[in-house]
Design a protein that fits this description.
alpha/beta; 5-stranded parallel β-sheet; 14 helices; binds 6-O-phosphono-alpha-D-glucopyranose; EC 2.6.1.16; carbohydrate derivative binding; transferase; Glutamine--fructose-6-phosphate aminotransferase [isomerizing]; glutamine amidotransferase
């Protein structure tokens, strides 16, 4: 069936705006609002048996996997191994039969991820896939499937598939943590409450569209852009940089904020916008001191935080987007949205083909 742009100029913008809805749909499929607990569809293996999780994905989906690594290790206390599809098999890591391998893919067809799945299956791992296309090859070949209910994603640059992947991964983390005895009812209620607030917060964040469009003017003039974040904001920095590269063709790099002093700081001057993803969480003060170093070197900081973060920063960034305060657990889901909007507006200013960027494909079925 033909899918329209719903009054938006591009599919990408339409898909960004669909996020409050599709995040809610994806969450409601796994969340019981009365008991306030997460219930996954029945799986052909017991979560309490999982001793290690191997996460494999490509592109934007690999950044969802990276957020999940932080969550699964810190909340469920299960060790995680993570790789991109194209490296995993050739690395030939030792794999334990009976271990859990988790594949994340919007299309369910990406050749490198699919090859990794077949490799893991052959090694006797249990293969669980998170896909957006329920009838895809990965879904068919996996032992179990969790679906993101993002609906068809047309724009080549992934947006709503990414945030709904994070929602499924957050639910999986909670279910795994509970099964492993790492989460009591209160803990689960707190994390679930954070999750249930995501659709409303996502809708609030879309109201920053105009502010981000204004900031995009500055970013569009840059040759290089740096994205910084710590903890679960680090994969969002990587995703922000990827989005910008994909659709605006501006060189962008995502870096762990604490690693900046080991290299990228040498590039900083007034021509390099530095986009900082910094929700006020337990790591905030560390990120703030990295931002102070950038500002001291004349760097043009675009600061994405909440009002508390802006208060605590201690220096004045070139631009500041004061986002709503959110539970740190769900912050990576929500902070993905402003970086999508920023990349989108930069691309529009540059006049690129936003939905069909040059040299890129929606689904890469060759290795
Ligand atoms: C391509 C797309 C990306 C996507 C990646 C992985 O590069 O352009 O948007 O993130 O493939 O795709 P998958 O369908 O496996 O998530």
């Amino acid at each position: 069936a033909m899918i329209g742009k719903g009054g938006h100029r591009h599919y990408m913008l339409k898909e960004i705006y669909e996020q409050p809805q599709v995040i809610g749909d994806t969450l409601n499929a796994m969340f019981n609002p009365v008991e306030r607990t997460i219930t996954l569809p029945p799986l052909p293996f017991a979560l309490d048996d999982v001793e290690r999780v191997t996460l494999i994905a490509c592109g934007t989906s690999s950044y969802a996997a990276m957020v999940a690594r932080y969550w699964i290790e810190s909340i469920a206390r299960v060790p995680v191994d993570l790789d991109v599809g194209s490296e995993f098999r050739y690395r030939d890591p030792p794999l334990q039969a009976g271990g859990l391998a988790l594949f994340i893919s919007q299309s369910g067809e990406t050749a490198d991820t699919l090859a990794a799945l077949r490799h893991c299956k052959a090694k006797g791992l249990r293969c669980l896939s998170i896909v957006n296309v329920a009838e895809s090859t990965m879904a068919r070949e996996s032992d179990a499937v969790l679906t993101t209910l993002a609906g068809p994603e047309i724009g080549v640059a992934s947006t709503k598939a990414f945030t709904t992947q994070l929602v499924v991964l957050a639910c999986l983390t909670i279910a795994l943590a509970r099964a492993k005895g790492q989460l009591d009812a209160d803990g689960e209620a707190r994390l679930s409450k954070g999750l249930t607030e995501v659709p409303a917060r996502a809708a609030e964040i879309l109201k920053y569209d105009e502010d981000l469009r204004a900031i995009a003017q500055t970013v569009a003039e840059a040759r290089d852009v740096l994205y910084l974040g710590r903890g679960t904001a680090f994969p969002i920095a990587l995703e922000g940089a990827l989005k910008l590269k994909e659709i605006s063709y501006i060189h962008a790099e995502g870096y762990a904020a604490g690693e900046m002093k080991h290299g990228p700081i040498a590039l900083i001057d007034e021509t390099v916008p530095v986009i900082v993803i910094a929700p006020s969480d337990g790591l905030f003060d560390k990120t703030a001191s990295n931002v102070q170093e950038v500002v001291a070197r004349g760097g043009k900081v675009i600061f994405l935080s909440d009002s508390e973060g802006n208060r605590r920063l201690g220096v004045t960034p070139a631009f500041s987007v004061v986002l709503p305060a959110v539970d740190p657990f769900v912050a990576p889901i929500l902070y993905a949205i402003p970086v999508q909007l920023l990349a989108y507006h930069v691309a529009v200013i540059k006049g690129t083909d936003v939905d069909q960027p040059r040299n890129l494909a929606k689904s890469v079925t060759v290795e």
